[in-house]
Design a protein that fits this description.
Its cofactor is Mg(2+); Mn(2+). By secondary structure, the chain is α/β, with parallel strands linked by helices. It has 15 helices and 13 strands. The protein has two domains: 3-150, ATPase, nucleotide binding domain (Nucleotidyltransferase, domain 5, 2-Layer Sandwich); 200-379, ATPase, nucleotide binding domain (Nucleotidyltransferase, domain 5). The strands form two sheets. The chain has an eight-stranded mixed beta sheet with strand order 5-4-3-2-1-6-8-7, with helices on both faces. The protein has a five-stranded mixed beta sheet with strand order 11-10-9-12-13, sandwiched between helices. Helix 1 crosses helix 3 (127-140), helix 5 crosses helix 15 (379-390) and helix 11 crosses helix 13 (335-344). Bound molecules: adenosine-5'-diphosphate.
Length: 393
């Protein structure tokens, strides 16, 4: 009987999923990919099959599908009827925070759940939803094995010295340290490099994950040695709606001089800043690139400038640079942004190959001391692989 792995990625108002078939040998294939968005407002389910053909598009009243448990039941109902004769062997979850404890994915047990709940204060906007999805599966099928895969785990190889903030030492012990995120994406890229670019896989590589959330990771021989994100996913690069690295004094100023509440500042930093805040137009890079507006140009310029600054910092951590790899929505799809970033990185020895860049690489440089690449990421497949491995499927 065909065995399946379900991968879940639960956000505050969405539940994304991918269903993979497990073969006795070889890589798994995604046979269904979809999401319910608008939980709590206007829930809508969209599902495609492995070839990208639409297999469902349904909309409900917000009362009908209000939380993750109900969303999961709808998804389970649809998948059960479509994949009759197959058996669901396990569920893999994207869990944002593994805290200081977890450097690898783990099989979910009641004890592990209690520990993961301890990390809710470290990621209050994401962790509760990730754990809610685990509980929702437990309710529907208590005996189904579940695996938690952490966005922080890949960065646990970073040296201790890289994990500190300059706060009194006891804050480090209380968990206020640099963790880094997008780890599943970086792990996928690290795993793909030896086949695509064997000459650089063992070297000093900076990966730029440029999506609506954006970060960069410095890798030495495929292991994380530095990242632009730190204690939270607010740090580092300019993002779709987040400002990235900024002077912490600004938060004090907003609290003390402008009288903003913590909640208002949270909203400003997570939802109203970044490309959206600077441009005043939107957070979608495609829209900004197509715009003639001066503020759209400013937002793009600043986005690229910040990538350049971070690249310099990470190259310093690595003691030089052998390659720069672009991935995620903007990194994989925008030749223009890649070109701007590579031009700015000429001092590191990157010489862009414009024709290769236009067609998407994978190698988009020629000659030069350092090379540049485009590699699609696949966080869902990374979670499915971990789940398969831990469940020995
Ligand atoms: P996430 O998974 O973090 O939501 P993605 O990795 O899917 O994000 O990236 C989303 C971003 O990718 C959006 O800002 C979108 O504008 C951008 N993007 C997608 N396609 C293109 C493109 N062809 N050119 C420029 N930006 C693009």
């Amino acid at each position: 009987m065909e065995r399946l792995i379900l991968v879940l990625n639960a956000g505050s108002s969405s539940l994304k999923f991918s269903l993979f078939t497990v073969r006795t040998a070889g890589e798994m294939d995604a046979v269904a990919v979809g999401q319910i968005e608008g939980l709590g407002t206007a829930p809508r389910l969209k599902v495609k099959d492995g070839a990208g053909e639409r297999i469902a598009d349904e909309q409900w009243d917000k009362g009908e599908v209000s939380g993750h448990a109900q969303a999961l039941q709808r998804i389970a109902g649809l998948l059960r009827s479509r994949f009759q004769g197959s058996v669901l062997a396990g569920v893999g979850h994207r869990v944002v925070h593994g805290g200081p404890d977890y450097a690898a994915p783990l099989l979910v047990t009641p004890e592990a759940m209690r520990r993961l709940e301890d990390f809710i204060p470290l990621a209050p906007l994401h962790q509760p939803h990730n754990l809610a999805a685990i509980r929702a599966v437990q309710e529907v099928q208590p005996d189904l094995p579940q695996v938690a895969c952490f966005d922080t785990a890949f960065h646990q190889t970073q040296e201790r010295v890289a994990q500190f903030y300059g706060l009194p030492y006891e804050y480090f012990e209380r968990g206020v340290r640099r963790y880094g995120f997008h780890g599943l994406s970086y792990e996928y890229i690290a795993g793909a490099l030896p086949a695509v670019a064997p000459a650089i896989a063992g070297g000093r590589v900076v990966v730029a994950h440029l999506g609506s959330g954006a970060s960069m990771c410095a890798m030495r021989a495929g292991r994380s040695v530095g990242s632009s994100m730190g204690f939270t996913a607010l740090d580092g690069l300019l993002m779709g709606t987040r400002p990235g690295n900024m002077d912490p004094g600004i938060v004090l100023y907003l609290l003390q001089q402008e009288g903003m509440s913590a909640k208002q500042i949270e909203d400003l930093l997570y939802k109203r800043s970044g490309l959206l805040g600077l441009s005043g137009i939107g957070n979608d890079m495609r829209v900004l690139l197509a715009s003639e507006d001066a503020r759209a140009r400013l937002a793009i310029e600043h986005f690229v400038y910040r990538i350049g600054r971070e690249l310099g910092a990470l190259a310093a951590v690595l003691g030089g640079l052998d390659a720069l790899v672009f991935t995620a929505g903007i990194g994989e799809n925008s030749a223009r942004i890649r070109e701007l970033v590579c031009e700015q990185a000429a001092w590191l020895g990157i010489e862009i190959d414009r024709a290769a860049n236009e067609t998407g690489g994978p190698c988009i440089s020629r000659g030069g001391k350092a090379s540049a690449w485009v590699l699609p990421t696949n966080e869902e497949l990374m979670i499915a692989r971990h789940t398969r491995h831990l469940l020995a499927l």
